[in-house]
Amino acid sequence: MKRPAIWSICLALLLGQTLLAGASRPLPYDEGSTGLAFALRKLPVTGSFLHTAAHPDDEDNPLLVLLGKGRGLRTALYTLTRGEGGQNEIGPELFEALGIIRTEELMAMHRYDGARQYFSAAYEFGYSFSVEETLDKWGKEETLSDMVRVIRKFRPDVIVSLPRQGEGGGQHHQTSARLTEEAFFAAADPARFPEQIAQGYPAWQARKLYERHRWQSNQEPDPDAVRIETGIFDPLYGRTYVEIGLEARSLHRCQGMGQLIPPPGPRASYWKLVASAEPIVPGEQDLFEGIDTSLFAIEGHAPSWPTLAPNLHTHLTRIADLAGQAQRLFDPADPALTAAPLAAGLGSVRSLRERIAESALPEQEKYQADFLLARKEEDFEKALHLALQIRLETVAETGLVIPGQEFEVSAVVANGGSMTPGASTLTIEVPDGWEVDPPSKQLDAMLPGGAVRESFKMRVAAEAAPTRPYWRREDPTIDRYQVDPRHADQPWAEPEVRISLGYTFAAIRAELTETVQHRYEGPWVGGEQRHDVMVVPAVSLSVTPEVNVLPRQDLPQGKEIRVSALYNGSEPVRGTLSLELPEGWLSEPSEQAITLSRKGESKTSIFRVRPPGGANPGEYRIGAEGRFHDRTYREGYQSIDYDHIQRRHLYHPAATALHVVDVEVEPVRLAYIDGVGDRVPEALQQLGVAFDFLDEDDLAFADLDRYDTIVTGVRAYLVRDDLKSHNDRLLEWVKRGGVLIVQYNKFEFNDRGRGDSPYAPYPIKVGRGRVTDEYAPIQLLAEAHPVFHYPNRIGSQDWKGWVQERGLYFIGEKNAEYRDLISTQDPFEYNAGEKLGSLVEADYGEGKWIYVGLGLWRQLPAGVTGAYRLLANLISLPKTRKKAAETVTQGEGRER
Predict the structure, then answer these.
(1) Backbone phi, psi, residue 79, to 5°
(2) Omega before residue 439 within 30° of 0, cis
(3) CA-to-CA separations, 297 to 313, 404, 749, in angstroms, rounded
(4) Cβ neighbours around 604 below 10 Å, total
(5) Which of 718, 725, 734, 728 is nearest to 671 (CA)?
(6) pLDDT at position 890 over 90
(7) Between the CA of residue 703 and those of 6, 694, 739, what are the distances in Å?
(8) Quick check: bond before 791 cis, omega within 30?
(9) pTM to 2 decimals?
(10) Count of CB atoms within 10 A of residue 97's CB?
(11) In this model, does residue 247 exceed pLDDT 50?
(12) Residue 770 burial (CB < 10 Å; 0-12/13-18/19+)?
């Protein structure tokens, strides 16, 4: 079967500004004199800001840029989930794999706003209309504990959340906001989660908590809401904070965030005060009103200083004076003018930290004063690197290494400035068990305009574990990850290899650390890409397809299973591949010998498995095992790599779920129009259905009458302009007797001007209807319809075992020519009432037009038996619809 170049179509949506190439690289805003100017803004500021949210893309991006880059505040975003339950507009990844994409999109986005990123261990199980359901699935106390730990760790002055009430984004949004309100107080109570205090995170009372305020366009905002103008022009950017923020937001590409940046103009967000530890200022005009964000705020956190640390004010005054001096001396043509006060300021901060540690201040006061000064030490040190224009480039010759492998890392130290730092040293940081030769090197003087290159040999530990996410979800019924506590709340575990450059300037020691990365040409035309050094197994195994469906009538011939072995070593190896089978099952052959000769080579072995006679319908696990060099391999990794994010790996057991199913399909002539992130074609292959993919030429010129059924893929009207252009040909084909099955679309299916859809036979409109409870009851409204009877009788069992949801983006408004075939409803207050539009048909001429809002696209990759049986009936309709009147007995009981 032919498949059109759908990725070339998606590519047109993905390619944006070349600035995005190499998403792990800093932006030009953070380098050179501009980077120094931004760094200088931070020196006299101690204020901090935490934004909480439920999912990636919930955040206020312009506000983060304004506060972090514009005002120099320390900022962070706490996102409860990694967005695993969302949709994907750029590829096939769903669930945990989608969570990795969305995590990386947040990290790429933070290059613009400089915010830190934190996560809880909650797993996004899909859209929800119930706070109670959400808290039950996430674990209320566990998730609250996650949030309290981040507040105590980051120690913000101001926290903002999403609205506590409303329906926007489902109740995950409201859940995150209500948890934030509770955490605001719990973080300050040492009796709550005392184990965190024992781990080194003392109680912390943030000063104020706000929630986002939204209002209807025909109303005025609440006069008590604080208006924060983000349409302000920043001369360092040459743009407004809205422009920068929305450019950052466009990196949420898998969620279809807009790529068009608005022109300059007024723009604001509004926030309502929820709680305050400060006296409330009537008519306040700013989130930080009444809060000291200067260096002297440290005195407020150490009220005993006049008697127990009497020189504190003098030292803070000196640090503030040096920060101001550096700002006044700043000249973009000669950034080194700021180096002397920056070095002096760095030394003064360190000296004050030592004095505080030796002082008689109470431990709680001592902790917070040192915490804030430690952040200032980081700020002064970063500014000093930029003032001296010292750069450290670290590159590994390979990005994927296996246990025991030797490889080389190079470090280039460049001095782009006009001064000569002294006594410089390169030091490598690697995991335990790795060998480095040499572990450090003394460098010659870093002369202005010069660059020094040094190389290091290293060997990976023989028992090094693969580099993988530190979070894992082993039980799919539990919507929380198990996490490695060493990295809890971080986006990723610490990188495997880092290099630090230590140097001296004006008698002050400074250190610049960079993660060692591998450079490569990005996918498509993404330019240079980089990713961290990652340990991978010598042999990575994968089994395809991931989900197998074996119709019961096909039991005698069995099922073909393919096992692929990807080699990451360099020396040839011989080994064997075999299958781990359920009791009584057989495979032909039982074992296959293979030789792997070079890095990147992949070989696939084919096995045919047969169950014992009379195997019952159900799910059977088949695993793969590879034996090479006295090692056994039973897993493999999925590479997730797009041009706007850093490459990451997700590991899966080398196994497949084989479903023995009572399912039949009529012999229809079928065609498929590919969508986005669309795995329904794989399900059709599992059913043994032959079909053609229709490309642009087919839609424009082919004889469509050779097909009985045509299916449009998931959100095909979003990515297939050729489908929109030639949709009239499809409707004419329906009129002549064809059956067109349109899988779910969002609002791209509607005409923005007239509201309804120009692609349906009669007036119709995709709405926002959805049912999030995967167990929601299904009522047949057309119980005699052949789609529920032929060739498979759809009963109550077929609606069981669904995952995440029943469906979404149901048909809303529609003409009388359309008929709903089922109805369903959520058990939740916010989505109460019968929901129609999930399975809708219309007769059009001699044929049928059918819209499927049910989430078959989620159910089929998950191996849901009923979804396969329903899909088989849908595509069989051209052959079965005439049988209904002849064989279906009127008045049969309704299936629920």
Answers:
(1) -110, 115
(2) no
(3) 11, 51, 55
(4) 13
(5) 734
(6) no
(7) 21, 11, 15
(8) yes
(9) 0.90
(10) 18
(11) yes
(12) buried
